Amino acid sequence: MLYVNDLSLNIPETTKPRVVIIGGGFGGVNLAKNLSGKDFQIVMFDRQNYNGFWPMLYQVATAGLEPDAIAEPFRKMFDNGEDFHFRLVKITGVNPVTRTITTLIGELQYDYLVIATGTKSNFFGNESIKKFAFPLKRIPDALNLRSQLFQAFEQASLIRDEPLRQSMLNVVIAGAGPTGVELAGALAEMREHVLPGDYRGLDFEKMNIYLVEGNNRVLPLMSPESGSWSQQFLEKKGIIVKLGTRVEDYDGELARLSTGEEIPTQTLIWSAGVTGALIDGVPAESIENGRILVDQFNQVQGLPNIFAIGDIALMKSKKYPKGLPGVAQPAIQQGKHLAGNLARLLRRKPLKPFNYFNKGTLAVIGRNGAVGDLPGKLHLKGFFAWITWLFVHIYYLVGFRNKLVVFSNWIYRFFTYQRSNRLIIRPFVRQEDKAGQEFIRRYQED
Ligand SMILES: Cc1cc2nc3c(=O)[nH]c(=O)nc-3n(C[C@H](O)[C@H](O)[C@H](O)COP(=O)(O)OP(=O)(O)OC[C@H]3O[C@@H](n4cnc5c(N)ncnc54)[C@H](O)[C@@H]3O)c2cc1C
């Protein structure tokens, strides 16, 4: 049995400069992979023991993939890493004066600190939505959502009360960015090909999938061409798209929209916004819009030897006055680039500014349907974009086993339409509210 007093970060003493990386996402991992253990001691902290491939998370939530297929444990990724140390610990604070990071277990000094903590869901201060909605940011979220969807169908098949059954069958997705659109497409596919066979007593003509977006088009960060093509594709699949509309409140039973409309639903999926996963101790003047302001070398403004990369970093430039987009490529490229700059720092050479190379954006909407905005104002849509999405994502997925599992899953699903991972493994506890009515209680992780 371990007692808290027995715990220690157990990082060996070193004569080399110590680089501490908080977060092993796209940014942190690409930094660590490109740093040399001969030059630095590399210490990576993460609150989970794996690197997740979030672009495929919606497939876990909709029973298409097993969670292990989209993640790779850090200890496996870096099993040959020279002077590399991973610790499964959440970082609670940073002290730039003493050059230490704080955890519940203890403190550690750094020579260079890299904050690569990404983002967390933003509920815009609405506690009720935070309590009852289903976000999709991490693997536990995807398993929660998958369990909720199938539990709602199971319950619907037990219920005689028509309005209550309808609320089990209604799914509302808040936010029509890539995650919302991908989820909507996958749910429509499931409604057409999987659910009627599984639940023969239920009429899935009555299952409504709403996609609610505050902007006046779907995929607001992509081109208008991609947005309107995607909307048509989704509407053909029977998705009810509501533009210029926000989900303003949700009490676990009723989603209230900014138009005044109320949709009874047991499942509100929240993909309407994110904000930086900040660490205490970063001064307020270095933070803007929930992200950490960095210069063109990813140095945090006003904090020597502290860097931020990826989604948490706000790097403004002439071309990107509001900062780089919160997608995987800036994080990957900044991670690699910073590794080069840290090596330059060590050799007292001048740092090189970061230049983002936009490789384009892809979003998948369903079988044979995807859109892509490529450099040079090129737009892809339909089957060709879909095939491109599949290969690009297999290419970037970490681990040979994962590539094989995902690829064979896709082939199997393409021919059979099956979504095999339909287990409810995180059943939700039903409780009575004050009015004596039942509602679903869920567990919120921050
Ligand atoms: C569902 C979903 C779908 C997406 N789809 C796409 C897509 O199709 N294409 C695309 O380009 N981008 C997509 N993105 C965005 C992309 O995943 C992010 O831009 C990218 O992950 C950013 O990388 P990062 O390294 O900054 O952060 P992340 O990859 O989020 O990694 C941050 C890491 O920090 C850890 N962490 C956070 N706080 C702490 C702490 N206090 N202590 C210790 N560890 C901590 C987290 O556990 C995590 O491992 C998607 C994101 C999501 C959530």
From TrEMBL:
MF (Gene Ontology): NADH dehydrogenase (quinone) (non-electrogenic) activity
Pfam families associated with the record: NDH2_C, Pyr_redox_2
Taxonomic superkingdom: Bacteria
Family stated for the protein in its record: Belongs to the NADH dehydrogenase family.
Catalysis: reaction(s): a quinone + NADH + H(+) = a quinol + NAD(+)
Lineage of the organism: Bacteria, Pseudomonadati, Bacteroidota, Chitinophagia, Chitinophagales
Residues spanning the membrane: 383-400
Protein EC: 1.6.5.9
InterPro entries: FAD/NAD-bd_sf, FAD/NAD-binding_dom, NDH-2, NDH2-like_C
Protein name from the UniProt record: NADH:ubiquinone reductase (non-electrogenic)
Chain ranges of the FAD/NAD(P)-binding domain: 18-335
PANTHER family hit by this protein: EXTERNAL NADH-UBIQUINONE OXIDOREDUCTASE 1, MITOCHONDRIAL-RELATED, NADH DEHYDROGENASE
Keywords noted in UniProt: FAD, Flavoprotein, Membrane, NAD, Oxidoreductase, Transit peptide, Transmembrane, Transmembrane helix
Domain External alternative NADH-ubiquinone oxidoreductase-like C-terminal: 359-415
Main enzyme class: oxidoreductase
